[in-house]
Specification:
Layout lengths: L1 H16 L3 E7 L2 H16 L3 E7 L4 H7 L6 E5 L6 H4 L5 E5 L13 E4 L14 H10 L7 H10 L10 H11 L4 E6 L9 H6 L13 H10 L13 H14 L4 E6 L5 H4 L1 H13 L3 H8 L5 H27 L2 E2 L4 E5 L2 H5 L1 H10 L9 E7 L2 E7 L2 H5 L4 H10 L4 E4 L3 E7 L3 H17 L2
Parallel strand pairs: 1-2, 1-3, 3-4, 4-5, 9-10
Antiparallel strand pairs: 6-7, 8-9, 10-11, 11-13, 12-13
Helix pairs in contact: 1-5, 2-5, 2-6, 2-12, 2-13, 5-6, 6-7, 6-12, 12-13, 12-14, 13-14, 14-16, 18-19
The structure holds manganese (II) ion.
The site of manganese (II) ion has 6 residues, from loops.
């Protein structure tokens, strides 16, 4: 795997020397934006010209359009592994730095394909797209950019219970280069920018059942301890902080632990996990360019705009979780699903499926399928738990096969995946998916 990344580094070096113009295409989630950031920061430091585009999904028409663009090197990050066959016929060099499931196509000599799955490494937990991207530039002496790989990992829910696999190697790079520090603390968000009841309600990871995503629950929790919920965490007295810490630990011990911080960053971006939430909020609100420019060093107004987006986005998630709490999911024998045509709920469907599982609003013994109607199609987001994956569930495969059956498209990771299906096949699709999950569980 590191050898393969080294091949990519050599290709990059060649193009740096040739003064090539490079095209970067990346995904619009926190991991994808971090992927683009690590590569773009590295190239900018080498004074190379590049052009970055962040897109929600790589599709065949985009792949075939790009081949005609006059760039010397194309880099696809946090996406691309599904299109090796097409890249093989590009007349230019291509680097794929991905971690999604692969189809086994061998790459031709113009393509360097970095993907943990090729090497038997689990791309859903041990390496993110930003991690693959970081490995491609690491050999250019870019260890001081390693934290972007970890921000991407957090974005894809990989660092929340500690980093494993290749992510650990990257963590060591970040610590050794001095860009990152680890210290113990309460892992609640926006300690110095939001009133404490919101800090707690906006803390989704680690999950605080009864508090995460629940303003009322959070206020009641604080009132029971006689803490004034309207002030900021940083304004609490030391003994109040201790009281709060003990009460939170009794709900979820993971709430106290290692915090990963980049001391040279502005306060708002200092915590890696919060940094990933900000990029996520930018991507989800179609402001991926804003996220990328922040990651490339822009501050001031860009940060204010991102903070506003983040607040709106968090309020949408809270609204979504309140809806889940009120309505619950529709149960089939082996899956459960959420369906909405509401604009706000549709935008956060995948997120509330994940958080709904982790804060125990949803039954964790069945995968959750979030369905959002988009005109004639339905966007499908599937989420499950590590326990279900260990019992045989592979949502990436199930969503790919079931959506293909109705002329749709899908795929992703075993634990989290997505698809797009025609609206009219909704019920048949759900029944087929249910059968597939049932089959996966009975045949493991
Ligand atoms: Mn990713």
């Amino acid at each position: 795997m590191l050898n393969r990344a080294g091949e990519a580094t050599n290709v990059l070096k060649e193009h740096v020397e040739k003064d090539s113009v490079i095209r970067i295409i990346s995904h619009n989630d926190a991991d994808g934006i971090s992927s683009a950031a690590v590569i773009a920061n590295a190239l900018a430091e080498e004074n190379v010209q590049f052009h970055t585009t962040i897109i929600p999904r790589l599709k065949e028409d985009i792949v075939n359009q790009l081949r005609h663009e006059s760039y010397d090197l194309f880099i696809f990050s946090d996406m691309g592994s599904a299109f090796v066959k097409e890249f093989n016929t590009y007349k230019k060099d291509v680097i794929i730095a991905d971690h999604h499931q692969i189809d086994g196509t061998e790459s031709e000599s113009n393509v360097v394909h970095i993907n943990p799955h090729i090497f038997g490494i689990d791309g859903s937990k041990d390496l993110s797209g930003a991690g693959s991207s970081y490995l491609a530039v690491r050999g250019l002496g870019k260890e001081h950019l390693a934290h972007f790989a970890l921000i991407g990992a957090f974005g894809d829910m990989q660092g929340q219970s500690g980093f494993t696999g290749v992510n650990r190697l990257i963590l060591n790079d970040a610590l050794e280069s001095g860009v990152l520090e680890i210290h113990e603390g309460l892992k609640i968000v926006s300690k110095s920018s939001e009133p404490i009841f919101k800090s707690l309600a906006y803390t989704f990871s680690p999950p605080l059942p009864g508090i995460s995503g629940d303003f009322e629950g959070s206020q009641e929790f604080l009132e029971r301890m006689n803490l004034s919920y309207g002030i900021k965490f940083t304004d609490l007295e030391d003994e109040e902080k201790d009281l709060l810490k003990d009460a939170l630990i009794s709900i979820n011990p993971d709430i106290f632990g290692d915090c990963y911080t980049v001391p040279r960053e502005v306060p708002m971006l200092r915590d890696l996990e919060e940094y990933s939430y900000i990029l996520d909020a930018c991507g989800k609100n179609k402001k991926q360019g804003l996220g990328l420019s922040i990651a490339l060093g822009e501050k001031g107004q860009a940060l204010d705009a991102a903070l506003k987006l983040q607040r709106e986005y968090r309020d949408q998630i809270v609204k979504g979780l309140e809806w889940v709490k009120r309505e619950g999911a529709v149960q089939l024998s082996d899956i459960q699903y959420l369906y909405s045509e509401d604009k706000v709920l549709k935008a956060v469907m995948g997120t509330i499926a994940s958080i709904g599982l982790s804060v125990e609003l949803l039954d964790s013994s069945k995968p959750v399928i979030g369905l959002s109607r988009l005109h004639k199609d339905i966007k499908v987001s599937g989420r499950t738990t590590r326990e279900m994956v260990d019992r045989g569930v592979n949502l990436g495969k199930a969503l790919q096969d079931s959506s293909n059956n109705f002329g749709g498209q899908g795929g992703g990771h075993d634990i989290a995946a997505g698809a797009m299906i025609p609206y009219e096949s909704k019920d048949n699709f759900l029944n087929l998916l249910n059968e597939m999950v049932e089959y996966q569980l009975s045949n493991d």
